[in-house]
Amino acid sequence: MQIGPYTIAPNVVLAPMAGVTDKPFRQLCKRLGAGLAASEMTISDPRFWNTRKSIHRMDHAGEPAPISVQIAGTEPQQLADAARYNVDHGAQIIDINMGCPAKKVCNAWAGSALMRDEALVARILEAVVNAVPVPVTLKIRTGWCADVRNAPTIARIAEDSGIAALAIHGRTRDQHYTGQAEHDTIAGIKATLRIPVLANGDIDSPQKAEQVLKHTGADAVMVGRAAQGRPWIFREIAHYLATGEQLPPPTLQEVRDILLGHLNDLHGFYGEPQGVRIARKHLGWYAKDRPENAAFRAVVNAAESADAQLRLTRDYFDALIAGETPALSPAA
Ligand SMILES: Cc1cc2nc3c(=O)[nH]c(=O)nc-3n(C[C@H](O)[C@H](O)[C@H](O)COP(=O)(O)O)c2cc1C
């Protein structure tokens, strides 16, 4: 898939997720096979750019190209300024969020709520595309609600405005994350556009990725929640799409090393205690698929220091690798 001057290969990308796709997670997913990983959204209002959260969100030092940064807002001029600011700070692709149903965003008419106002969408896209010399991509849902599934109209506006690629999550805004994503609307849109289309929603296995690509004709798949605690899903999907064969799951040794590396990166990026707190969320995701992990989660969540978090994680996996029942002692 081509986005402006960038060839995105493999055509399996990480979905932007606020509170999840921070720099350590993006780097990990890219290393494990994601062709692209957009940042968490950055609010377009400059009054928030100096908060600790925004500073972390706008830190792209050391990230492999192309660096894609998502912005969210409602005012065309403010979004244009935010796009420029982010390009000045390393963004090589600007992504506009019209796909997130979060209340905080929707109260301000940002995210997917914007899709209700097609004239405003056109003004925003034009303002941002004209503001920056880099490709601008757009992420949308299929519409506001079942009766207002206007993604095809928004998609046409996007292409006419010079948007370089369009990601579509196969749910309406009022569905939030309930029900099942549908991919028919995405197929319909793909058939009418020249720009690349990324299909998103409920893609959680290599087989599902292949099926969605076939059904929609999309140029790429975008994976969100299925990558939480399973960042190797990108190489699994990419391998299956390229060969038709399934990669074996990662060994316990590899999961241990990936997880310890991830924890170290989180501690380094956020410092203590924030890094330890954020790491708990990821530890929970890594541990969610194995019944014996409930006890591990309970103990490791009590760890207050980076050292204790790392030690408990290493001991737990080492015991599993040795075929022993892990002795779970409190985190001290
Ligand atoms: C915790 C979380 C945070 C999200 N934050 C964003 C966001 O900041 N911007 C955005 O465009 N979409 C956001 N999304 C939506 C995802 O990008 C994606 O469209 C959605 O999860 C469906 O894909 P999936 O079924 O593969 O998870 C978020 C989703 C989750 C679960």
Structural notes for this entry:
By secondary structure, the protein is α/β, with parallel strands linked by helices. It has helices spanning 23-31, 52-57, 76-88, 103-107, 118-131, 151-161, 184-190, 206-216, 233-243, 252-270, 274-286, 293-300, 306-321, and strands at 2-3, 6-7, 12-14, 36-37, 42-43, 68-72, 93-98, 136-143, 165-172, 197-200, 220-223. The protein contains 13 helices and 11 strands. The strands form 2 sheets. The protein has a 9-stranded parallel β-sheet with strand order 4-3-11-10-9-8-7-6-5. Strand 9, helix 7 and strand 10 form a beta-alpha-beta unit. Helix 10 (252-270) packs antiparallel against helix 13. The termini are far apart. The model has no long low-confidence stretch (mean pLDDT 91). The chain binds flavin mononucleotide. Flavin mononucleotide binds at residues 15-20, 40-41, 70, 97, 99-100, 139, 169, 200-203, 223-226.
Q: How many β-strands, per DSSP?
A: 11
Class by alpha and beta content: alpha/beta
Uncertain parts: none
Q: List all distinct small molecules, including ions and cofactors, that are bound in this structure.
A: flavin mononucleotide
Key traits:
332 residues, alpha/beta, 9-stranded parallel β-sheet, two-stranded antiparallel ribbon, 13 helices, 11 strands, binds flavin mononucleotide
Q: What's the arrangement of secondary structure elements?
A:
Layout lengths: L1 E2 L2 E2 L4 E3 L8 H9 L4 E2 L4 E2 L8 H6 L10 E5 L3 H13 L4 E6 L4 H5 L10 H14 L4 E8 L7 H11 L3 E8 L11 H7 L6 E4 L5 H11 L3 E4 L9 H11 L8 H19 L3 H13 L6 H8 L5 H16 L11
Helix pairs in contact: 1-10, 3-5, 5-6, 8-9, 10-11, 10-13
This protein binds flavin mononucleotide.
Flavin mononucleotide binds next to loops.
